[in-house]
Structure formats: structure tokens, C-alpha cells
Amino acid sequence: MAKSWFVYLVRAANGALYCGISDDPRRRFAQHCAGRGARFFRSSPAQALVHVEACADKGAALRRERAIKRLGKAAKERLLDPTAIIQRVDGPSSATAPSMGGAALEG
């Protein structure tokens, strides 16, 4: 069985959105919160995992990430479900992942 890959967005403390890919977005978010991973969060720490999309494979995830990174902030904000925060710094939320052809994360 092929490994699942996801594109995710994390909101930083300054309001900026970071886009990345991972085979485990919750683990990757925890790494961002712990100061490991992207240099993006050195100036403003990760606050919330706000969007996750499932992709067919790693290549599809990379292509989707590239497409999202080309969007302006307003377009990225439109991807988000305003009522769903998947995980905050202080732990998981009860909300499910927003769906844009993606899948909710469990656990």
C-alpha cells in the first residue's frame, strides 16, 4: 500500500501561513512547534495547524504545495474553513480537517 501524503498549512503567531508537505501532518506540526524543521518559524512560532489536504502521492503533494505557495495571502485564506482548527500549540482540537478533496485526520 502506498504511503499517504498531505499538504498542510500552519498559522504562525504573526498571522502568516506556512505551507508544507508531510506523510504525518500532526507530527510535522509538533516538530514546527518544537523549533525543529522550517526556518520560517524562527521569527514567529507556529500556532495552529489550520488546513490539511490528502494527495495521491508525494509528487502530487509537491505539485499542490507549489501551487499553494504561488497564491497570495488572500487566496490562501480562502482555502481555510474558518470554523476548523485541526490542532493548536496546546493540543488537538475537536474539529476535523477542512475538505478540498482531502481527508480528515484522525487521532
Automatic annotation (TrEMBL):
<feature type="domain" description="GIY-YIG">
    <location>
        <begin position="3"/>
        <end position="78"/>
    </location>
</feature>
<dbReference type="Pfam" id="PF01541">
    <property type="entry name" value="GIY-YIG"/>
</dbReference>
<dbReference type="InterPro" id="IPR050190">
    <property type="entry name" value="UPF0213_domain"/>
</dbReference>
<comment type="similarity">
    <text>Belongs to the UPF0213 family.</text>
</comment>
<protein>
    <submittedName>
        <fullName>GIY-YIG nuclease family protein</fullName>
    </submittedName>
</protein>
<dbReference type="InterPro" id="IPR035901">
    <property type="entry name" value="GIY-YIG_endonuc_sf"/>
</dbReference>
<dbReference type="InterPro" id="IPR000305">
    <property type="entry name" value="GIY-YIG_endonuc"/>
</dbReference>
